[in-house]
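User: Here's a structure from my thesis project, written as structure tokens. My advisor, Dr. K., wants to see whether a designed sequence matches the one we expressed. Can you design one independently, without my sequence as a hint?
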């Protein structure tokens, strides 16, 4: 059907079915291992870019804190404004914040070119600042967003510590981070929505399998989380602002407590250790003291920049840098932290394209930076020497996939050893990754929802993709 054809076309063309244009002038180059990464500007003259998200339409979706939602053509840099929210309150850290875009009806017949656009922002209600999550509808070719539906509102807010990132999970629920709104004790109050990561269905209702029946609270004990990402293996990580010490990277685990305000960083003081033992506290993977103000967080796993593969990439505000965070095999420790891109000011938003390009949004016009004449900007980081391997593989690399349709398991039979097998949903997101030891591999599909997927095999002689239907 249409969505499957679109996804396949994106892979066959290296990830982006858009016309090629002349390369933008290089603003900087830097090494990542043996790779030279070039930084250039895709778009400029923006105001406090808060979110960049790679959409299922192969465009970049962007929020600016004053209230603007736009689509950005990643080939030309053209910014198409879709909507300026009329009730956004921008004051200090408040305003339009996180965004997520998804295709709600990927298996509809006939196909419907419709997307749901989720945004979280601050607004004023009877002179009181609050926060809400709203779902809009976008139809391909339209010039605006329509059908606003408030999924969650009346969240306590102030002009500081509002969060908030959004993440749509493969099970079609959505995570939303909230800050403590300068009410630190509320982070430990399970009846409060502040200082939490919330999980809800796409219509705002409470999932039946949340940790506490009838509660949106997924995790608690957060101060001000401003980064959120899920890896192909399902693990979720978050970045979080500390006070004057202990900015954190956390592995998010359902039902866990992350300590604030009783714990700052690790459970390494006597009172903290006691609280951690009694309250199921999950310690951070790494911390920074003094603080750096960590913001947007993404995962990089593309051959274009081999030195970044398997790492988290973190946009940093106060310390004006991009930080690579390597992960161990279990995803439980961060062995190394390496900094890049230190000359463009405050960095807040980040996303990765299917071509392996990294897009970063500066935040120099947020009242705390020193904006250049063309700020704020979307920067592109890329390996310009990288030549994508065609996904349309030679016959010698064609692989067998059976049964298809499949239920709980499927077998992949390879003609030659493969480095990796990846199952992607129709939004192009990895939902399962496996590293086969031989020529046969069994895919465990038990955690996947029924529907259409793409199975991608990467080997020394190329990459091949086949469609798979899970019943």
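Assistant: Designed independently from the structure alone:
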């Amino acid at each position: 059907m249409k969505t499957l054809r679109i996804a396949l076309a994106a892979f066959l063309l290296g990830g982006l079915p858009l016309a090629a244009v002349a390369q933008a002038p290089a603003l900087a180059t830097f090494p990542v291992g043996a790779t030279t990464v070039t930084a250039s500007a895709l778009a400029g003259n923006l105001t406090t870019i808060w979110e960049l998200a790679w959409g299922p339409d192969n465009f970049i979706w962007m929020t600016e804190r004053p209230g603007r939602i736009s689509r950005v053509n990643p080939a030309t840099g053209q910014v198409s404004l879709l909507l300026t929210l009329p009730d956004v309150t921008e004051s200090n850290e408040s305003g339009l914040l996180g965004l997520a875009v998804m295709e709600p009806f990927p298996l509809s017949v006939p196909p419907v070119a419709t997307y749901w656009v989720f945004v979280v922002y601050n607004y004023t209600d009877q002179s009181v600042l609050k926060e809400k999550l709203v779902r809009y509808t976008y139809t391909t070719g339209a010039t605006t967003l329509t059908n606003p539906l408030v999924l969650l509102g009346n969240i306590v807010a102030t002009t500081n510590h509002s969060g908030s990132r959004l993440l749509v999970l493969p099970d079609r629920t959505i995570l939303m981070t909230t800050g403590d709104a300068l009410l630190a004790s509320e982070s430990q109050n399970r009846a409060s929505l502040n200082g939490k990561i919330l999980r809800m269905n796409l219509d705002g209702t409470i999932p039946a399998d949340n940790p506490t029946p009838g509660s949106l609270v997924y995790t608690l004990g957060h101060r001000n989380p401003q980064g959120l990402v899920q890896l192909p293996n399902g693990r979720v990580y978050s970045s979080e602002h500390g006070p004057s010490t202990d900015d954190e990277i956390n592995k998010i685990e359902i039902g866990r407590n992350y300590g604030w305000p009783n714990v700052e960083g690790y459970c390494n003081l006597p009172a903290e250790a006691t609280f951690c033992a009694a309250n199921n506290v999950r310690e951070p993977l790494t911390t920074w003291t003094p603080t750096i103000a960590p913001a947007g967080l993404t995962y990089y796993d593309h051959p274009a920049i081999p030195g970044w593969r398997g790492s988290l990439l973190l946009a940093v505000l106060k310390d004006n840098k991009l930080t690579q965070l390597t992960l161990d095999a279990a995803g439980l420790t961060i062995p190394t932290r390496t900094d890049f891109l230190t000359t463009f000011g405050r960095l807040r938003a980040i996303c990765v394209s299917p071509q392996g390009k990294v897009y970063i949004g500066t935040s120099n016009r947020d009242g705390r930076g020193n904006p250049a004449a063309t700020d704020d900007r979307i920067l592109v980081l890329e390996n310009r020497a990288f030549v994508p391997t065609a996904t349309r593989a030679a016959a010698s690399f064609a692989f067998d996939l059976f049964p298809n349709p499949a239920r709980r398991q499927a077998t992949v039979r390879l003609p030659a050893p493969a480095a990796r097998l990846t199952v992607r949903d129709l939004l192009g997101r990895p939902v399962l990754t496996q590293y086969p030891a031989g020529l046969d591999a069994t895919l465990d599909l038990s955690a996947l929802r029924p529907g259409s997927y793409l199975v991608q095999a990467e080997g020394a002689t190329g990459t091949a993709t086949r469609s798979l239907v899970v019943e």
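When you compare it with your expressed construct, this may help: The longest helix spans residues 2-12.
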